[in-house]
Design brief:
There is one protein chain. The chain is an alpha/beta fold. The protein has a single domain, classed as P-loop containing nucleotide triphosphate hydrolases (Rossmann fold, 3-Layer(aba) Sandwich). It contains 9 helices and 8 strands. A 5-stranded parallel β-sheet has the order 2-6-1-7-8. The chain has a 3-stranded antiparallel β-sheet with strand order 3-4-5, covered by helices on one side. The chain is globular. Bound molecules: 2'-deoxycytidine-5'-monophosphate. 2'-deoxycytidine-5'-monophosphate (DC) binds next to helix 2, helix 4 and helix 8.
Length: 219
């Protein structure tokens, strides 16, 4: 069974998806990490972010993978390096390029083939897995999302400023929502859940209940 969880950053999506997968004994795929890995490589190499061709070529020449959940860029573990604000910003530029998306979506489909898996991102229910049995779209208010991101970064020992994060988030949302290819939006058959007032545990419980119900229906 494929479960997709889409939505903007800061909705608790990553934490929820990861823990839900663990509780269900499903595999987990963090597709945002894939765009982040390409962005990190582009930054390191000084690739021109205005050149779609250069970014597409970079994607073709790059190996992105996960080893026991750790993002591997050309064989190098980059779990921490891909979480900086600079990479977050760069990833939203990389994610606008259709050829890049095509390569990564194909990789995602191959990876998910034959697995019970929770796939998390922006286009998992709409583009990567339109036939997924269970689709969720998580939202939360912009303030709450920026507060969560600040706390996530602090937990990782990365210092940040709330106002800067909120501003970056607004700009990133703008790019994710308005890009011509695979913009961030809920699939028609996705269940939308506003997490502003909910704890991570509450959200997981809700989602798990729904997935288990679908699993028993399809058994
Ligand atoms: O979820 P995240 O913040 O790690 O995602 C990083 C960037 O990649 C963000 O700008 C959205 C983009 N992304 C995307 O376009 N499609 C996905 N399936 C996952 C992430």
């Amino acid at each position: 069974m494929i479960v997709t969880i889409d939505g903007p950053a800061g909705t608790g999506k990553s934490t929820v998806a990861r823990r839900l997968a663990k509780e269900l004994n499903f595999d987990f795929l963090d597709t945002g990490a894939m765009y982040r890995m390409l962005a990190l490589k582009a930054l390191r190499q000084g690739t021109d972010f205005d050149s779609s061709d250069a970014l597409a070529e970079l994607a073709e020449q790059t190996s992105v993978d996960f080893e026991e959940g750790v993002p591997m860029l050309d064989g190098e573990p980059v779990g921490r390096e891909i979480r900086t604000s600079e990479v977050s910003r760069a990833a939203s530029f990389v994610a606008r390029i259709p050829e890049v998306r095509q390569i990564l979506v194909e990789w995602q489909r191959n990876y998910a083939d034959g697995r019970d898996i929770v796939c998390e991102g922006r286009d998992q229910g709409t583009v990567a897995f339109p036939i997924a049995e269970c689709k969720f779209f998580l939202t939360a208010s912009p303030d709450e999302r920026a507060r969560r991101r600040l706390s996530d970064l602090e937990d990782q020992g990365i210092s940040a400023n709330y106002d800067d994060l909120l501003q970056e988030q607004i700009e990133r949302d703008e790019r994710d929502l308005n890009r011509p290819v695979s913009p961030l939006k809920a699939a028609e058959d996705a269940m939308t859940i506003d997490t502003t007032e909910l704890s991570v545990v509450d959200v997981i419980e809700q989602l798990r209940g729904i997935v288990q119900q679908r699993m028993s229906q399809s058994a």
